[in-house]
Amino acid sequence: MDDKKQIKFILNIAVLALICVFLWWGNDNLSSFYIRILNLSAIFVILGISMNLVLGFTGMFSLGHSGFMCIGAYVASILTMSPASKEIIYFMEPITPILAQIQWPIFPAIIMAGVVAALFGFLVGIPALRLRDDYLAIATLGFAEIIRIIVTNTITITNGALGLKNIPSVKSMWVYWGIAIITIIILKKIVNSSWGYSFKAIRDNEIAAEAMGINLFSHKLLSFSIGAFFAGIAGALMAFLITSVDPTMFRFTFTFQILLIVVLGGMGSLTGSVISAVAITILMEVLRVVEEPINFFGLLQIPGLPGMRMVIFALGLLLVILYYRQGLMGTREFNWDYILNKIDSFRKRGASM
Q: Which pTM value belongs to this model?
């Protein structure tokens, strides 16, 4: 290992140590509101980078993330709820007997939520990924709506439109940000592997990629399934954060919120998705003020307008598409090389003076 690699390794360890110190401090000192916002940011980080793998790195215009998230949320909720809670909540029709007495620990349930979502991603991807561009977007958007309708009508499994309550609560930032950091590391490894290079080749030119011997369909299906896996995990975390789920949470507008994160951060940049996910999550809370009545010194009063936050974000997305299509980071990633090269150049200038 050369000197530069050793320095980068030490810097990575230092950053992880700082994050751990912040999580330790934040769990003990921040209010429950701020902890909730930071945990929600971690969930949107997972959603943003997993959708970026599909859209930004593989070039598939998929809009089915809310459907996979819905699957993950319901799987994790049903697996972790106590039998007593299930008996109380399923009062219209009793839950399917095979699920009535099941109660898993939280972490195995999170993994199973991702696996089930990936399985659905695999099954949906087999027919859908033969389509391209707008047709693929419409097909995956339709899938997400179909999932929501199925969840609404399978009362003995999902409790229908009433949703699920009394889901075990997880508030620790270690859980949410730990899983987010693991997700970033895994996807970073995938992007920099031979699979990742194949994904980028498919994104840039499918004909050239196929001529180089890349199996287009299998690589697209792999990318789609991995994205679905992490969307399912994010859905499970959302259920543990809110402690209740219902079908209305996973409408197609939720997918467009994730799409906003990807576009603003830069399609093809994990770093951009992480930054934009945190920024947008915080801004969504800050901008709640525009949905409340505003009084300008008693001279002018503007009534609250529900939904104005999304209008502002939609205008922001439109401006980015029109004037700054590459987003915040484009296809660039944060790395230590730029900083180390700058330090070396300053050293050389100092030595020459």
A: 0.90
